Predict the 3D structure of the following.
Amino acid sequence: MRPRTATRDRILAVAEAGVLAKGFGATSIEEVIAEAGITKSGFFYHFRDKNELAREMLKRYVASNDQLFDEIFARGRELSDDPLQAFLISLKLLAEVMSDLPNGHPGCLIASICYQERLYDREVRELTAQSVRSWNARFRAVFTDIAAIHPPREPVDLDDLADMFSCVVDGGIIMSKTLGDPSRLTRQVLAFRSFVKLLFSSPARMS
C-alpha cells in the first residue's frame, strides 16, 4: 500500500471509530488529526473539509459491507444450488462472523448518520439512502429467487421481507450495544434465519 493511501485509510478508520463512538458532531478534525498522527495540512491534503471526510468514510463503510455480503452469500451459493438452502447457509455464516467479533459489532455508520443527518450535506444523506436501497434490492432479488421455487406459506411482501433483514441487523447492533451483550446480534440473525426457513418451507417438509 502506498504511503498516501495508507495515511488516507488511517484517517478514515480513526474518523469512523470516533463517529461510531460518539457521533459526527462530537468528532472534531483536530481529534482525528491527533489520533491519526498527522499534521493539519496533512489532513487537508486528503480531505477538503469534514463533509468530504464523511462522504469518503461512508463510501469505505459501504464497500466493506458489500464485500462481506458478496463473500458470505457467494459461499452459500457454492454450497447449495437451492436458493433457500443457500440463503439459510449464508445467514448461518453471517451469524458466525458476527459472533467472532471479540468486542461485538462496532456499530452501524448508516444509523449514526441518520441520527445526526442535519450535520451532513445533501450528498452524504443521499449516499446513505442509496446504500440502504442497494442492500434492500440485493436481498429482494434473493427472496424473488427463493419464492419462485418455494412459495411462501403466508402472504408476504418480498420488499418488506428484504427491508426486514436490514432492520434485524441494524436493530441487533443497537440492542447489543445498548445491553452490553454482543451475542444479541448473532441471535437476531439466527432468529431471522428460523423465520425465513418457516416461511418458505413446505408443510410436508415441516411435518
